[in-house]
């Protein structure tokens, strides 16, 4: 039997590791994570938020192993190894620099394919990370080990009073559901524990993950990195081997004036200013649809047009819309299955509260802030024109919206999926577009109780 060693962790106390796990931790691919911050530039706001992907990955491994203890027919060691390696493809500063097509999940798979394992093939580990089989449901599901660890860990290291979840009860109440695609469910007695996770996620979103100051800093770093790529200081693939220290040191050597300026400003915490904010309720459904469908190239083009229009550098901050996967978790009560939103009024209300915390921001250099802020173009009556005059021509059509306009009302998600497939959409495209349309308010989803069960009906909401 492999020798067991103990790692001391501030969240879980003792985390046991066997020899094969330790050998993976000692690889260069994993050790790189010691210098990649878990929460990007959140440390600009919360000075103690210097924790890294290294300890998060070990924590995720521990949580996944604890969940698997209560489940039958799963390979616990395979789950732990996949959880340990799930983030080795992250670029410096984590999600902040998933830019220009960089995909940390793809890079993770590439790295795993080159690694040696004592008892498994690389493809077996990759299959878990791609949610193939029961094991994958623990790492990429509606409520998973990754999410539990980062909420607990990020809360601890930022020092905020949010992020607390009833972790021990939640994992005791988890069960595997043998559906077409295996997934985790929660027993009814764990309902309040799931709700605690939703509350934690909702509170952490505006106070930590989308804090206004860290958002500005991260947009500045992202643009400095893009300047560095354009200058050929490094290429996109180099981000898979660099850590935070490598990247910042490289950008400081840039001869590009804009790149150099941004890094010096970050070094001094001399940040851009937010001159415009478009909150969820400030925008029409059509305007939200326009914004969330802009790709990176669209955003850069729009920034150039706005910069020319305003006479200064302009950066746009358009976050991904909240996907809120936790609300899809299945809860088992009296041997019947329910979606969380169907039986939890708290979850249903939090879903919309979470969505409405989303906003879009426009940043300019601090030296131009006061001058432009006082100009008429930023008055309440016409501030939308500043951005939407440049954006309306980028309208993206929606096949599903066309379906809904023809049908008016569709009873049952299955029927809507069938029609979408007949129009050529895959199931993944269907789910993604439906989620976007509901978020924007272009389609309204109603949960209807029918003979002891629930049905999802959809109506056009224009």
Automatic annotation (TrEMBL):
One example of a Gene Ontology biological process annotation: dGTP catabolic process
NCBIfam families with a match to the protein in the record: HDIG (TIGR00277)
Domain HD: start-end pairs: 53-151
A single GO molecular function term of this UniProt record: dGTPase activity
Protein name: Metal dependent phosphohydrolase
SMART domains, per database record: HDc (SM00471)
Lineage, top ranks: Archaea, Methanobacteriati, Methanobacteriota, Methanomada group, Methanococci
PANTHER family per UniProt: DEOXYNUCLEOSIDE TRIPHOSPHATE TRIPHOSPHOHYDROLASE, DEOXYNUCLEOSIDE TRIPHOSPHATE TRIPHOSPHOHYDROLASE SAMHD1
